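Case 256 in the screening queue. Each case pairs one protein sequence with one candidate compound; here the compound is S-adenosylmethionine. For every case the pipeline is the same: read the inputs, emit a complex structure as tokens, and attach any notable structural observations.

Predict complex for case 256.
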Amino acid sequence: MIGRSTLGAIRRRLGRARSSAISLVSPRGTIDTDLAPGHPLLPSLPAVRAYNAARSAEAGKAIRDGNRIVNFHIALDLVAKLPAGDYAELGTYRGMTASVIWPRMAAGSTLYCFDTFEGFDQRDLGDDRLAQPLEKSAFRDTSLDIVRARISNGNDAGLAFRVGFFPDTFVGLEHKRFRFVHIDMDLADPIRSALAMFWPRMVDGGIILVHDYRSKRYPMAAEAVDDFFAQRGIVAWPLNDRLGTAMIMRHPNMPD
Ligand SMILES: C[S@@+](CC[C@H](N)C(=O)[O-])C[C@H]1O[C@@H](n2cnc3c(N)ncnc32)[C@H](O)[C@@H]1O
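Case 256 output:
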């Protein structure tokens, strides 16, 4: 028979344990990643909180996408151990995800940030599944100063901006090799171009993340990824963030 005071003590202890277990819950509550005390990803939580707060402030509503940041950290920590390779982000906008990548890069490497920094280019907007007027004005409210301030406190060390229409802005980087590439350009044409340019230039063990893999608004993102990799007999791994991200790790003997 357990006495009342013992029961109370157990309840208090359970309550403390519960409140110290940190939950990264998707907006609709469908994915729940509990990080128990001592979990190696616990140090990622300040970045999760900062990301969620900044995204929410810019969106004017609560946005929680903690799994996205944890997935970034897992991938970035894996590729940091590789002997070589730079980093690239295709679709930097206001620098939110670039600010997650930059502080975790291997010493001496560079993050190439590709964007028009003026929103989508007319040449990519042919898909009639798009809500054209909305898409035309999307992602224009940015500047290199906003991005620099967010990523690196205004410091350009390890940063290179490729401003303009991708793939034109790839010129001059043909000799580079990459360990980590984040593709976040939403639309099919630039995603296809990015895969064609970067996949053959990934080092062994290098990782490509493609955002919007489960997006209802941009179903062409998943189509572009699946078409590209199906031709090579490769299956992209779907991650558990809010809009879905496809993860592909390059292994020796995979075809270009
Ligand atoms: C979803 S936003 C990127 C979001 C960003 N990663 C973040 O953390 O907030 C998509 C970006 O891709 C850029 N983009 C799309 N197509 C492009 C192209 N062909 N060339 C250059 N930038 C492009 C847009 O200008 C836009 O800023």
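Case 256 observations:
- The helical segments are 4-20, 45-59, 66-79, 98-101, 132-137, 144-152, 188-198, 219-230.
- DSSP finds eight helices and nine strands in the chain.
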